[in-house]
């Protein structure tokens, strides 16, 4: 196929509000470098990293919940997930599904034509397990909010599935984040897992993937979204923020809290963990500043797990789940790429239950 010299792309020009996105119809099409492939993007999902990076929320100078608005003070040295400055302009978008249309040197031409999804963690080829050397696709390098995107060949994972591009674009970030959290916490069929924020992309993935491990799963979500959350298969659903969480749980013995919410409910989440329980976290959309009674931590022998850079086996395992039908996509809505601002506004407002995807 003939690859055009320019493409349509939504380009982030700096940290701030949605006005920092600029729509281009003649942005230079990337060329795959040595060891890279060029993907024609079929669909690209949205996630909290896109919002938080754009707004600068990751900076230690920001202590409020994720709002998606521009922050008055964004630290110049730590506004990204990795605590380092980004270079602009930048094309975001990590959750790509598409087709390989060109390859760089040292990549087999037979990869052309493969349908792929992306592994978003950009690793040092000589030291892949070193998290300190990891970057993120759509952050440290351009991503998929465009018609074409280039990525290292090992990060383009072939997938054999009857799901649509939009459905497949829901998996890379949300489901890998969830699987990474459950892997860190060692969740098994002996656990009862509490999932706050179960109506979101990662929360819904946590429900499915914890069930796949045989765990008992209790989801927390706003009442208006209970019906859609129920389709994911939790054993019970509670209100988003019960006035008395212990009373709402009754006799349930929570051994794992899998949290991306944080905020005001956080102390109650820790307080209901059983002795020896585990808390695993990969987000704080309701607020990053929380209060911990250290006596609860040490007297109950609790273990806390932060989860960001994934273990290398997580994404290949997720592809196997997808291909076997062990997990289902939670696609809420699709938007055109040029309407990314509207899609992100809806994502921030939690207008939908599940994942949002843009299509070039």
UniProtKB/TrEMBL annotation:
Entry superkingdom: Bacteria
Coiled coil start-end: none
Keywords, in A-Z order: NADP
Pfam families listed in its UniProt record: ADH_N, ADH_zinc_N
Bilayer-crossing regions: none
Domain called Enoyl reductase (ER): residue spans: 16-358
Alphabetized InterPro entries for the sequence: ADH-like_C (IPR013149), ADH-like_N (IPR013154), ER (IPR020843), GroES-like_sf (IPR011032), NAD(P)-bd_dom_sf (IPR036291), Zinc-ADH_QOR/CCCR (IPR051603)
Entry GO MF terms: oxidoreductase activity
PANTHER family: QUINONE OXIDOREDUCTASE
Name listed for the protein in its UniProt record: Alcohol dehydrogenase family protein
